[in-house]
UniProtKB/TrEMBL annotation:
Keywords: Transferase. The keyword Transferase applies. This is CoA transferase subunit A. Belongs to the 3-oxoacid CoA-transferase subunit A family. InterPro entries: 3-oxoacid_CoA-transf_A (IPR012792), CoA_trans_fam_I (IPR004165), CoA_transf_BS (IPR004163), NagB/RpiA_transferase-like (IPR037171). GO terms for molecular function: transferase activity. It comes from Splendidivirga corallicola.
Length: 232
């Protein structure tokens, strides 16, 4: 089996350059590629187009890359937790494409599956539909949406093996699996890296064929975006 292990995040992102398109996995702050984001901050590359469900928060995740002005465009669904994102958008410093969450996930899945376009009713009659082809099926109007693909996909998994097979845990198994399939080059960071053949094949969520590089990450913060507790 091919060993796809690299030493750390710095080595993993070494070939990422200015002006590329990145997919970054995770949902909110859960399952985001923390180590890869830190490595990109150190590289100080710019002009990035980032495809991610969220834009992080001001001081964590993609929000850190927004602070350093490394992101040229965001393609996202929910961005309401990031004041710097809002400021850059209103000041015209950041190009933004907001997409209904289901449409975003399906466009990414289509990119990984090799499906160039599909039809969905979501967004019809709104600004989302501007400039897009529509078609009627069974008396209902649908929008044509195009696939999304990326030069690099950065994903985070709970466990992986040296051949790149991945297992996600909980909410992290949301955008990560479909983004892993939609990148020309996919880099996976995992909490635990095990030898090839140690994972139960029936429990693998992303087959290693989609992964080009994998490494065991360090010092995960796993922040909680909104902490809600019961008042006693």
């Amino acid at each position: 089996m091919i060993n796809k292990v690299v030493k750390n995040a710095d080595e993993a992102v070494a070939e990422i350059t200015d002006n590329v398109t990145l997919m970054l996995g995770g949902f909110g702050l859960c399952g985001i590629p923390e180590n890869c984001i830190s490595a990109l901050l150190k590289k100080k590359i710019t002009g990035l187009t980032c495809i991610s469900n969220n834009a992080g928060v001001d001081d964590f995740g993609i929000g850190l890359m927004l602070q350093t002005k490394q992101v040229k465009k965001m393609i996202s669904s929910y961005v309401g937790e990031n004041a710097e994102f809002e400021r850059q958008l209103l000041e015209g410093e950041l190009e933004v494409e907001l997409i209904p969450q289901g449409t975003l996930s399906e466009r990414i899945r289509a990119g990984g599956a090799g499906i160039p376009a599909f039809f969905t009713p979501a967004g019809y009659g709104t600004e989302v539909a501007e400039g897009k082809e529509t078609r009627e099926f069974d008396g209902k109007v649908y929008l044509m949406e195009r696939w999304l693909k990326a030069d690099f996909s950065l994903v985070k998994a709970w466990k992986g093996d040296t051949s790149g097979n991945l297992v996600y845990k909980g909410t992290a198994r949301n955008f990560n699996p479909m983004m892993a399939a939609a990148g020309k080059i996919t880099i996976a960071e995992v909490e635990e890296l095990v030898p090839a053949g140690e994972l139960n094949p029936n429990e693998i969520h992303t087959p290693g064929i989609y992964i080009q590089k994998i490494f065991e990450g360090q010092n995960y913060e796993k922040r909680i975006e909104q902490r809600t507790i019961t008042q006693r």
